[in-house]
Amino acid sequence: MQLPVHDQHVQAGARLVERFGWQVPSDYGDPLAEALAARQAAGLADRSDRGKIRLTGPERVPFLHALVTNDLTALSPERGCYTLALNHKGQIVAEFPVLPWGESLLLTVEPGERAFTLSWLRRHKLRRKVEIQDATTELALFSLVGPQAPAVLERWLGERIILASEDVVPRQWRGSPLLIAGNRTVGMPGYDLLLPAEQAAAAWM
């Protein structure tokens, strides 16, 4: 499968590799310089190959709360969390951020864990009033990281946003929904940007 901005990666000289059925950029010719640029200024990574699972319905929070280690009852429209999912023996079977987005919860999982996580969630649904949807190809996911990431986002969005990890702010971008989530998994200021795949090419900075 191809990422929503596949053509832009090719035009930029990306070296593409196959990973879990997706063609993803490994680097653009100088991986050391690219990593240094992200460390010293800002870097943008296309992570649209990550699995995206949307939970909707009035019981979405108690349903997921019963399956994970974090307290999902503490979620708010502006605050998500990172959590572990456990089986009936207390063993970790998955880990993912849980991001509130309007009347839904969005989980983003590693590409190789998407099918298992979907199956695992659906197996535990029973009669819960929750819908579990695979939104992987529906949404693009870009990660913007580095000390200059806040300034780059401000130039792109026209608004300065500072977020702690898993904090979220929903916005509109060119008439389409946009979710901005704090991401500090690489130890630097960062954001995950989620938006409809059909807007990805226009949004790619």
Widest beta sheet: strand line-up = 3-9-12-11-10
Which whole number gives the mean pLDDT? Answer: 94
Q: How many distinct beta strands?
A: 12
Q: Specify the overall morphology.
A: globular
Strand percentage: 35-45%
Note the gap between the termini.
Answer: 22 Å
Structural class: alpha+beta
Number of DSSP helices?
6
- Could you tell me the radius of gyration in angstroms? 17 Å
Helix and strand element order: HEEHEEHEEEHEEHEEEH
Please estimate the helix content.
10-25%
Taking pLDDT < 50 over at least 5 consecutive residues as the criterion, the unreliable ranges are none
Summarize the main sheet.
5 strands, antiparallel
Map the helices and strands:
Elements lengths: L5 H6 L3 E5 L2 E6 L3 H10 L2 E4 L4 E6 L3 H6 L15 E6 L5 E10 L2 E6 L4 H10 L7 E4 L4 E7 L3 H9 L10 E6 L2 E7 L7 E7 L3 H4 L2
Antiparallel strand pairs: 1-2, 3-9, 4-7, 4-8, 5-6, 6-7, 9-12, 10-11, 11-12
Structure description:
This protein has six helices and twelve strands. The model has no long low-confidence stretch (mean pLDDT 94). The protein has helices at 6-11, 31-40, 60-65, 114-123, 149-157, 200-203, and strands spanning 15-19, 22-27, 43-46, 51-56, 81-86, 92-101, 104-109, 131-134, 139-145, 168-173, 176-182, 190-196. With 205 residues, it is of the alpha+beta class. It starts with 5 loop residues before the first helix and ends with a helix. It is globular and about 50 Å long. β11 and β12 form a beta hairpin. It has a five-stranded antiparallel β-sheet. Strands 5-6-7-4-8 form a five-stranded antiparallel β-sheet, with helices on one face.
